[in-house]
Amino acid sequence: MQHLRMMRKNMTQEELAHQLGVSRQTISKWELNRGNPELNKIKEICTLFNCSSDELLFGNMRIANEAYSEIQIEPLSGFKFIKYTVISAEPEDDALNRIRQLAKELNIEHPKVIGWDFPHLSQEQTNVYHMHGYTAALVVPEGITIDTKSISVEERKAQNYVTITIKNPMDNPFHLVSNAYKSVFQYTHVNRYVYDHFAFEQLFQKSGVEYMKIHVAIQ
Fold it and tell me: How far is CA 6 from CA 29, 138, 147, in A?
């Protein structure tokens, strides 16, 4: 339940207790697994947080561990980018390497590289050949001139993003990254934000530790 409160714009125990008509100590007891809500309160909590009773009682939505940061709303300035998509059994490395090579060709030091899954595959590609798609993109630094006749440049406007950061995401990427996206989209839904159909991830290192930051655009 603590994670659900965090997703609801960091609702406090006192605020949740007031909405449910119980004491703060009761909320604390539930979160410490020293008791469970009564059936009528379970229904109220599920309605409030837009979740199922299984998710509430058995913790299917929990990601609150040391691998994840808190979910936040962050403004991001508009930016231009050049993208490259690969469809194969393992497309991520090929797409990222092509974008890094492009950054070298354009003499861009310390390039900002982002990426996202490419969803537009046929059923045959997915089910028969077990392929998936990945798009890597180079964020064009300010002051860099690109020949748009030979390279297609796209642009995103300045807007807010729902973000979460994962520590050591490659330790278990399927579990860690998938759960992070799930939680960010759940946060977006619970708080009635409108998804703007653009999301991306960025790998970076800090103090010798690898991190991945996920951004989901909202209107």
Answer: 17, 33, 45
- The model carries a pTM of 0.73
Query: What CATH class has 2-58?
Result: mainly alpha
Give the model confidence (pLDDT) of 54-78 as tens digits. 667 655 444 446 788 888 999 999 9
Q: How far is it, in rounded angstroms, from Cα 204 to Cα 210?
A: 6
pLDDT digits (tens, 9 = 90+) for 132-153: 999 999 999 998 989 888 899 9
Q: If you search the block for the tokens 């990427």, which residue do you land on?
A: 173
Would strands 195-206 and 154-156 be described as parallel, antiparallel, or unpaired? Answer: unpaired
